[in-house]
Amino acid sequence: MRSANSERRRPNTLGAVKHLHGSARATVKAPTEGCFALLAALEAYPTWYPDVVKEVKVVERGPDGLVLRAEAKLHLAYGPVSRDLDLLLAVSVSSPELVQLAHVPRGVSSGASFDATWQLEDHAGTDLRLELDATMPVPRLVPLRRVGNAFADGFMQAAVRALLQRES
Known about the structure:
The chain is of the alpha+beta class. Helix content is 20%, strand content 45%.
């Protein structure tokens, strides 16, 4: 027979929700308008980055046809950190230099979020900058210093590949 004092709880292996920040830059020989079109078309992300963006369903479009809100299923993985996120994203744009994806909280939250800001600048091609912020529950004692940049780099590399394929 066990006493109440002898029972031990299993430790919480998820740990706290942690913030990840990452950034990435690239220059592509593609018109800024074409880069903007690729990055603003959220529903196409699964075609050019299927390892991470598993599904996108457009919830609302603006009068210009651009996505205003979308449900997205993301799979973020780096070493021991692997999470599936089911998010509602608000999309705001300023053509042709800015595409922002912002997590919209809904219902009971796991603490996970994902925000991304793409900035585009026309310079003998297009300079692309991505700032990414995410929060997610991760195991305790997992070093996270490079994880945010790895996620941002992955998005940037996939976008550059897609832009180069469009141009060829």
